Transcription regulator TrmB N-terminal domain-containing protein
Amino acid sequence: MEISENLLTTLGFDHMQAQVYLAALELGEATMQALARKSGVNRSTIYTFIDDLKDRGYILETPKNKRRVYSAVHPEHLVGMQKARLAELQNVLPELLAVYNTSTTKPRVTFYEGIQGLKEVYADMLREKKEIVAYEDLSNLTPEVRSHIFEWFPKERARKDILIKTISRDNPFTREFVKHNRGFLRETKFVTSSELKTDVNIYGDKVALIDLQSKPPFAVLIENSNLAETLRTVWRQLWDKLGPVVG
């Protein structure tokens, strides 16, 4: 149920709406009172959530035996609705691109939060298809970040032939991780005296500052060619002074 609820929130449902929709999905046809019991949503407020879901086409209302019953639309209908929205977005994409701020002097700063937000940042690195240089401390990885991001990102990056060079804090976890460097198109040099609280990824004209230890984790993505090139130059100077590539 938790997985389904998390998926629904990515489709625009809030927590309560997701609870009501999933309850309706399980019950088939149900009265408002039954939905309130099943979903755990207070009866005095469930009316609002049902009305919202009806307006968005996720819940159907039907008269039956002098009562009104409610049912969830088939999950496949959700897929169809998302495809329709994607088609609408693709239709207006040329207009959006026309007003997109492409200035190289004014930084574009975007904030991302949570696992889904981090996925967006790492997916952006894959879309850029540019070499990545980074500062990182792999001991900062929480189990959640490891399972949701580092189980797929290194493999997908290597599949897309994107090289990453990292200046990493020397610790047992990183020592174990770099054993797979060659297969993951990855080069690493160690620093021993620094404690890296924030990961920094520099690629193309972008700099991603990623805090994996915060709850929830977050990232700040800055798009500016001057800033990216300056930080890349500083990174290269340190890289050249460090010892040999490990792994």
